[in-house]
Amino acid sequence: MSDQKNISGFRKNKRKSPSRGKSSSQGYERKSERKSARGSEYKSERNAARGSEYKSARRSAPNAARRSEHRGNYTDRPAVPRRPHNKVAFAKPGNQLYPIPAVMVSCYDPDTGRPNIFTVAWTGTICSDPPMVSISVRRERFSYGLICRTQEFVINLTTEKLARAADFCGVRSGRDIDKFEALGLTPGKSCKIDTPTVDESPVSIECRVTQTIELGSHVMFLAEMVCVQADEAYMDEKNTFHLEDARPIAYSHGTYYALGRPLGQFGFSVMKDRTKKKKQREKAAASSSRR
Ligand SMILES: Cc1cc2nc3c(=O)[nH]c(=O)nc-3n(C[C@H](O)[C@H](O)[C@H](O)COP(=O)(O)O)c2cc1C
Asked: I want to staple 94 with a disulfide (CB 3.0 to 4.6 A). Which of 25, 161, 174, 191 is the partner?
């Protein structure tokens, strides 16, 4: 219960200071960690970019009107009146590559066998053959020491159902609590490594570290995927896996998002009409058979 409180507290704090510029450049990083990255130069540029005309327009527009004037707004924050297209350069770049996945990485203590989960947004696919991924981890994370010792971890994909758990694993440390237990999650058996998976995740990617690169604030673990476990619940009769049915989520500028409607498949920009129609027919047949 107290954990629940803390999670909503975390959200409330975000709302109390709804300065859009801040959250957009901050990503998952916590306030104290981010302070050093925000130079005064950056702030004054940002302030200058927000003219007084713009500010008074925001103050005068009632919330409801502001919301309806900007239909593309996915959040419940007041809509920002659009200014004319003009790219502003930031003297101090922050991480701006969004949207990205926010995955639940499981690891374990080789001495006690106790498993842990922490959330990682600085992750990505880095090679197709051999299939490789990376995660970037701050040295102060409890999980950092565990991964250094075991040289392995599991990337567990997150879904709408797992969003709360993913957030919790990113704001609580395994030094203080057993996150599997606190969240009622099940450690699953990996095929090729000793680290447990998160059984409730639709896809668990077992990874063995091949290289460790010291970057600065973060240490990047490059790892080979040695096995992927996918939940049969999302497979059709032809064993094709439909991740979209698991409702995966994305993370952008500090907010978790459900994915929206599909816009096209790989290569759709050059696909012949005949092929497009055939694919649509196949897709409709497959989804009606899954229902
Ligand atoms: C959405 C989100 C993404 C995060 N991404 C990372 C990351 O990429 N690297 C990292 O070191 N910490 C990241 N964190 C912070 C850690 O997950 C967090 O400090 C966690 O409590 C560490 O757990 P541990 O002490 O049990 O290892 C993220 C947190 C959240 C909420």
From this structure: 25
Topology annotation, domain 103-252: Pnp Oxidase; Chain A (2.30.110)
Q: Which residues of 29-46 are buried (b: 16+ CB within 10 A; e: fewer)?
A: beeeeeeeebeeebeebb
In this structure, the residue with its CA closest to atom 11 of ligand 1 is 137
- Does the pTM surpass 0.70? The reply is yes
The better pLDDT of the pair 129, 95 is held by 129
Record the tokens describing residue 240, joined without a space.
Answer: 């094709």
Residue 132 bridge partners (DSSP):
127, 224
Q: What are the residue boundaries of the structural domains of the chain, listed by start?
A: 25-94, 103-252
User: Average pLDDT, whole number, for the chain?
Assistant: 81
Nearest residue to 42 (alpha-carbon basis) of 27, 61, 25: 25
Tens digits of residue pLDDT in 16-51: 333 333 433 445 765 545 544 444 433 444 444 444
Pocket test for ligand 1, best of 114, 118, 212 (most atoms within 8 A of CB): 118
127-131: long-range pairs with CB below 8 Å, 24+ = 130/224, 130/225, 131/224, 131/225
Ligand 1 centre to CA of 122 (Å) is 9
Nearest to 200 by CA among 185, 181, 189, 178: 185
